Amino acid sequence: MIWEDIVIAVGCFSLALALIPSIRKTHKPEKSSCALSVICLTALAISFASLGLWLSVASEIAGIITWGILLFQKRYIPKIYVPIPQFHTHNKSI
Asked: What is the dihedral sign for C-alpha 50, 52, 55, 58?
C-alpha cells in the first residue's frame, strides 16, 4: 500500500462522513449536484481501480453511496410540509 492511497482514502471517507447530516436533515442539495457528484466520483473510482489504489476505490464508493442516497431522497421522497407557526400580537389598550 502506498501513502497516496491512504491520503486519498482518508480525504474521501471524511467527505462521505461530512454528508451524513445532509442525509438526516430535510433540506437536500439539488438533484443536479447529487447526480454530477455521483458521476464524477464513479470516474474517480474507475481511475483509482486502474492504478490499483483499492483503499481509494472503497472510499470513493462510500462517497458514491452517500451522494446516491441524497439523490434518491431528493428524487423519491417528497418534502415534508412543516407549517411555520404564526404568532399574532394583539394591541390591547387598557
From this structure: positive
Report pLDDT digits (tens) over 54-69. 999 999 999 999 999 9
Q: For the chain, where are the alpha helices, taking DSSP H only?
A: 3-18, 20-24, 31-51, 54-76
36 domain residue, yes or no: yes
Which of the residues in the chain have pLDDT under 70?
A: 1, 78-94
DSSP, res 3: H
* Overall domain count for the chain: 1
Let me know if residue 85 belongs to a domain: no
* Containing structural domain, residue 60: 27-76
CB 83 within 8 A of CB 39: no
Distance CA 81, CA 69 (A): 21
Give, as one character, the DSSP assignment of residue 19: T
Q: Please provide the DSSP assignment of 43-57 as one string.
A: HHHHHHHHHT-HHHH
